[in-house]
Amino acid sequence: MPAPPEDRVPSRGTNRESAQLILDLVTNTLDPGYRSAAARHGPGGSRRWWDRPAVALGCLLIGFVLVVAYDHTHRSAPETQRVHNSLVDRARAAQSGANRLAAELGRAERSLSSEQNRVLPSSNAAARAQQSAQVAAGQVAVHGPGLTVTLREPKASKTTAANGRVGSTPVAATHILTDRDVRSVVNELWSDGAEAIAVNGIRLTPTSAIRFAGEAVLVDFQPITSPYTITALGDADLLSTTFAQSAVASRYQTLVSASGIGFSFDTHSRVDLKAGVPGTLRYAVPTSPHPSRTSR
To answer: Which of 179, 202, 206, 237 would give a disulfide with 212, using CB separation of 3.0 to 4.6 Å?
Structure first.
């Protein structure tokens, strides 16, 4: 058989050079050119003469900033603590003053009642007038027959809150019923002859306000949620008949089918309304029963 060509037989020298090249790539990762360039620059590298002073100056600046920040923090800490203590003392003083005034108000009301009973022991007309005034002002709890009107948001927008309370609605939900709806029902019931009214258990007084803040209806600054229950005390049959024939009831009967809100009213043989929060007079002062005469 003929011998193979010489170019297909690798020589031993070529194999040794290839192995040496691979060994150099593994053991000597740095190119010789980099090593020679570093040797020419010397052991200090290519630093300029101002590098060391610049580094020292930067360290001094950083240290100065840290010292100033530390000093400022420790100087302002007592001032912050003093302001905090002052606010706490003011809050405690205000709470103590409110408790003292509430106690004085209770004593004054008891004294007034005793004086009225002493001065007018046998005057039934005066007693009835006083009781009527107290009922109108919402200062006493009352009970008797009445009517309950319920307004409810549509079922699609009614959800259960994160704390599990049914009847709460999320803040981002769109409300159909607002303070105007509650006010319209309340005003209609007053017009129909109601003697006392409460909204979700909050007794209305002559100074009560029904407002809409954000996404909540406020009654005397207390938030309430759907369903809105308006309880009116009075002649149940008269209230039911008059309210059913009113334009307010007709409007909400229409909204039941158009918007899906809940609307209903029922008569009761007995409803109980708690006393309301007494109002605070800002400008009015009691007049002396025997004003002194001034000479002209």
So the answer is: 179
Q: Which of the 8 DSSP states describes residue 291? A: P
**Torsion angle defined by CA atoms of residues 185, 186, 192 and 198, in that order, rounded to the nearest 10 degrees:** 130
Sign for the pseudo-dihedral over CA of 70, 73, 76, 77: negative
Sheet holding 216-219, edge to edge: 210-213, 216-219, 222-224
The beta-carbon contacts of 71-77 under 8 Å, at least 24 apart in sequence, are none
The reported pLDDT for the residue numbered 164 is: 43
Closest CA relative to residue 232, chosen from 170, 143, 165, 166? 143
Can you name the CATH fold of 141-273? Alpha-Beta Plaits (3.30.70)
pLDDT in tens, 68-100: 888 777 776 677 777 778 888 888 888 888 888
Cα(193)–Cα(195) distance, integer angstroms:
6
Listed residue (194, 206, 199) closest to 242, CA to CA: 194
Q: What is the pLDDT of residues 125-150, one digit of tens each?
A: 666 766 677 677 777 788 899 999 99
Answer with the residue of higher pLDDT: 275 or 42: 275
- Can you tell me whether residue 88 is helix, strand or coil? helix
Model confidence pLDDT, tens digit, residues 226-265: 899 999 999 999 999 999 999 999 999 998 888 889 999 9
Question: Model-level pTM?
Answer: 0.50
| C-alpha to C-alpha distance for 12 and 19, rounded to whole angstroms | 11
Whether omega before 227 lies within 30 degrees of 0, making that bond cis, reads: yes
| β-strand partners of 255 | none
Could you give the CA distance from residue 237 to residue 146 in angstroms, rounded to a whole number? Answer: 8
Q: Supply φ then ψ for residue 173, to 5 degrees.
A: -70, 150
